[in-house]
Design goal:
Shape: globular
Helix content: over 70%
Number of helices: 11
Length: 278
């Protein structure tokens, strides 16, 4: 296979990753890491490095559109990003010293359960909920656009959400998956945000989390420009397309796509662990 053919295939896979990542808030890493390691035989450390670049690109590509549309809760995202950034740096620092085989199996089980949780019916509009005192003090409650106009919502369980974001950051630094699944579920299930707000705010956050991890991988020489460039060039247009599609997408359809990606990711992690791929 020539370099041109290799780059073209990487670009196609990355475009798909950006599309899925923007729609679900998971980031492109859920597709990029399995694609590079299993299909192209790339070393896991370089795959994680390229994945982190793709997550940053997905976030940059989709976040600007989501903010303009009014879906992203910027204030909440910046608050929770404190936890994920700390966790991402810790995860990246211990990545080369910790065997992640057992971790990936445990993570796969959590992801499968998370896919089940994301399908549980829940009232999207929480404007009638009792206000959380801490959320009100930090001014985290906001509104988001719906076909009927702007709808307000309340943010709940701030300490629980903050703790889950810390765990999400560590997983991002260890596995290079962006940990968007945990961010989305923490906001959707624990903090009870509308699903579109959860996915769009996750997209905004994952870029900062990945950037914190990518700095460590770059310093250790695990980010290859020849690999990262086609990844980034493919992810960006895919993320832009996904951001445009999300505005008119049905929430239940987004939940189904989200669950399918989580299940596929979990099965792939178990497979990689059993054959010694991670």
């Amino acid at each position: 296979m020539s370099i041109l053919e290799f780059s073209l295939l990487i670009w196609i896979g990355s475009f798909s990753a950006g599309l899925v990542g923007a729609l679900t808030g998971l980031g492109g890493g859920v597709v990029i890491v399995p694609l590079l390691t299993s299909v192209f035989g790339v070393d896991i450390r370089y795959a994680v490095g390229a994945s982190l670049v793709s997550v940053i690109a997905t976030s940059l590509g989709a976040a600007s559109i989501y903010i303009k549309q009014g879906y992203t809760n910027l204030r909440l995202g910046m608050f929770l990003e404190v936890a994920t950034t700390i966790g991402a740096i810790v995860g990246a620092l211990i990545a080369t010293f910790v065997s992640v085989k057992a971790l990936t199996i445990a993570l796969a089980i959590v992801l499968m359960y998370s896919a089940y949780l994301s399908q549980r019916p829940r009232i999207e509009n929480t404007e009638d909920d009792a206000a959380d005192p801490l959320a009100s003090y930090l001014k985290l409650n906001s509104t988001y656009p719906t076909p009927e106009g702007l709808a307000s919502y309340q943010v709940h369980s701030i300490p629980t959400g903050f703790g889950l974001m810390l765990i999400a950051g560590v997983l991002s630094g260890l596995l290079g998956i962006g940990s968007g699944g945990f961010k989305v579920l923490a906001m959707d299930q624990a903090m009870r945000l509308p699903f579109k707000v959860s996915t769009t705010t996750s997209n905004f956050m994952i870029g900062v989390t990945a950037a914190a991890s990518a700095g460590v991988y770059l310093a250790r020489g695990y980010i290859d420009p020849g690999l990262s460039m086609p990844v980034m060039l493919g992810v960006l247009p895919g993320a832009f397309l996904g951001a445009r599609i999300l505005q008119g997408a049905k929430t239940q359809m987004l939940r189904i796509i989200f669950s399918i990606v989580l299940v596929v990711m979990a099965l792939k992690m178990v497979y990689n662990s059993l054959i010694g791929g991670l």
